[in-house]
Amino acid sequence: MLELGAGTGRLAVPFCQAGFEYTGLEQSEPYAAWARTKLERQHLNGAIVVGDMRQFDLPGRFDFIFVGFNSFLHLLTDEEARDCLACVRRHLSAEGRFLLDVFVPASAFLHRDPDRFYPVKEFHHPRGGTCTIRERTTYDPVREVLDVTWYFFREDDPPERYRFSMRMLFPDTVERLLAEAGFRIVAKLGSYAGEPLTVDSPLQITIACA
């Protein structure tokens, strides 16, 4: 299997533990290094490759390729999405499956007050104490892009900021992009439990073949 946007190995570890032959593609060298460290510490054999999901060329073909946890949303234009899907199609085996996992954009999420902080999560900071993440968002309906700023609050320190953008992909856009890339959709799910996609589903998990 091949994961695009492998990050720090969040999924690499459990897949390798389950015995799958795993390869992960990750653009960030520090993230890839940390993922390799996780695998090495547990004596797991997965491969982590540094590369861009918009343009990659790996040896062999894969029976299963996936992009999990909204990573595909960081491709902000049709052109970037098409480049990625073209690479996926070239690397997918004849009977292989491609899985795309993104959330369904909710109206309330897109039309937030841009001046208000919204809670994200809390975690224990490595240097001690609790770190709280809050976010502000602005949505551009023309580009269908959500600009996000995360604020990291820790004790009395000034908050650190991290900015990123995500394209909001509605189900009809996912269908169009896959069709244009030569894929045929074989299943559309609305949750990790395998429930069908409905108007109330928080996720859109699309499984396709070439």
Summary keywords:
alpha/beta; 2 domains; seven-stranded mixed β-sheet; 5 helices; 11 strands; 37% strand
| Count of helix runs | 5
Instruction: Describe the largest sheet.
Output: 7 strands, mixed
Number of strands: 11
The average pLDDT is 97
The CATH topology name of the largest domain reads: Rossmann fold
Q: CATH superfamily name of the largest domain? A: Vaccinia Virus protein VP39
Compose a concise summary of this entry:
The chain is α/β, with parallel strands linked by helices and 210 residues long. 22% of the residues lie in helices and 37% in strands.
Could you characterize the architecture of this molecule?
The protein contains five helices and eleven strands. A seven-stranded mixed beta sheet has the order 3-2-1-4-5-11-10, sandwiched between helices. Strands 6-7-8-9 form a four-stranded antiparallel beta sheet, with no helix packed on it. The protein has helices spanning 12-17, 29-41, 78-91, 107-110, 171-180, and strands at residues 2-4, 23-26, 47-50, 62-67, 92-103, 118-124, 130-140, 145-154, 160-167, 184-189, 203-209. The model has no long low-confidence stretch (mean pLDDT 97). Strand 6 (118-124) and strand 7 form a beta hairpin. The chain has 210 residues and is of the alpha/beta class. The chain folds into two domains: 2-105 and 168-209, 3-Layer(aba) Sandwich (Rossmann fold); 107-167.
